[in-house]
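Thread: Newbie trying to understand structure tokens

Hi all, I'm a second-year student working on a class project, and my supervisor (Dr. K.) asked me to get a predicted structure for one chain before our next meeting. I've only ever worked with sequences, so writing a 3D structure as a token string is new to me. If someone could post the tokens and maybe explain what I'm looking at, I'd be very grateful. Here's the chain:
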Amino acid sequence: MGSEEGCWTDWFTLVRFPIAKVRVEEQVLFFAPTRRVGSLGELYSVLREDVWRVAGSRGVFEACFSGEVRLFDYFTGEELPVEVRLLSAECGWRGWREKGRGVPVRFKVVLRDRLWRREREVEVSGVLEVYSTRAEVRVLPSPGGLGYREEALVGGRKFVRTLSLFAATNEPFTPWDDDLARELREQLSSGKPAPRAKRGKRERTLSGYIDLGFFLRG
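---
Reply by user tm_fold:
Sure, no problem. This is what the structure looks like when written as tokens:
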């Protein structure tokens, strides 16, 4: 029951899922449990389409990928250091209550250097967590004037989603503001173009990568 018009308390289900970040010097690759992500749009697709499929898994969810990178210094021939880091992305949905659970996720990524014809495999493990809590929900006009924006306050943190006239009703709430979000917004406002995806016959690769800090917490 809401305390005022446009504001009420509701059940809110949060999902925190692991993201594998692989760095080879300036080369950075991000992997969600179900796909490689190189843009905010691709990460949104993971949130909408894949999170609950992973959450319903039994046992360890195996996330196996490959990616092309430069593994060796082209001048000295020395192997470049590979850094693997586990990040987490968060999203939420209001209006239903889920039983808390955790699903182990094991990432296995094969890095391939086409020029040197060498490979290197890296692994990292995490847990996809699901839990429900009570949230204070508000409905506000959309900044653009069409549709509306919903805000959910969960433990002092704000999650938001904007629903336009044509938006799907299963759009997730995402964290509104933190240091990484601010960094990403500055990068996007600088006018740098997002990388374009190249499609081959067997796999999809990306020509470049952007920082997905808006959703990722290390």
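A couple of things are worth pointing out once you decode it. Residues 183-215 have pLDDT under 50 and may be disordered. The helical segments are 40-49, 51-55, 179-189. Feel free to ask follow-ups in this thread.
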